[in-house]
Design a protein that fits this description.
Keywords: Membrane, Transmembrane, Transmembrane helix. There is one protein chain. This protein is mainly α. It has one domain. Helices cover 70% and strands 4% of the residues. The protein has helices at residues 2-9, 11-39, 61-86, 91-110, 117-124, 131-148, 155-174; strands at 44-46, 51-53, 182-183. It has a 3-stranded antiparallel beta sheet, with helices on one face.
Length: 184
């Protein structure tokens, strides 16, 4: 009975960790957009789920594409570093790689209604809406497979991560109108 209770309680710390990973990953993704925009000389507005230039217009198409690419590039860079760390045994790092994959899958789903980062870039380059998403998601899926390889994580771990990540994602997406707006 005690081990069953301990197993159930193991879901909570994993859920909290999953929530924290999603929040930090999202913050870093949006910071990538903001830093790129700022580096090009724009005033940038950052919300929990998107970053844009204050004027609403870029000086060039290239500037807009650069700012759009910065977020996914940060996400990929984090996933690459986390994958290397996960291969050395870190379960948290494996979760970070999985969160990176999930974030781009969610962005792809959102692109059904409004083209997200990779979709906008892919369209602008004449590659069709899904080409870059396919490449990014394939890369992140491969990194996730490498990061999770050999880890013997039980269903409680995956359930806790799913719950935490779902709550974090819901807060990022649905809470945007109520969460702070930052100007850089």
């Amino acid at each position: 009975m005690a081990s069953s209770r301990a197993g159930r309680l193991a879901i909570l710390p994993t859920a909290v960790t999953g929530f924290a990973v999603v929040m930090v990953m999202n913050l870093l993704h949006e910071a990538g957009h903001a830093l790129a925009g700022k580096a090009m000389g724009y005033d940038v507005i950052v919300r929990t789920n998107h970053a844009t230039v204050a004027s609403g217009r870029f000086d060039s198409v290239a500037d807009g594409l650069t700012m759009a690419a910065a977020g996914p590039l940060v996400t990929i860079a984090i996933a690459l570093v986390a994958c290397l760390t996960a291969r050395r045994g870190s379960i948290l790092a494996a979760g970070i790689v999985l969160a990176a994959l999930a974030s781009r899958l969610i962005a792809a789903a959102a692109s059904l209604n409004y083209p997200n980062d990779e979709a906008r870039i892919s369209i602008a380059l004449g590659l069709g809406k899904w080409t870059l998403f396919g490449a990014v998601i394939s890369l992140l899926a491969l990194l996730t497979a490498f990061a999770l390889r050999g880890k013997r994580l039980g269903w409680r771990c995956y359930l806790g991560a799913y719950i935490g990540a779902s709550v974090g994602t819901a807060l990022v997406v649905l809470g945007e109108p109520w969460l702070p707006v930052l100007r850089f």
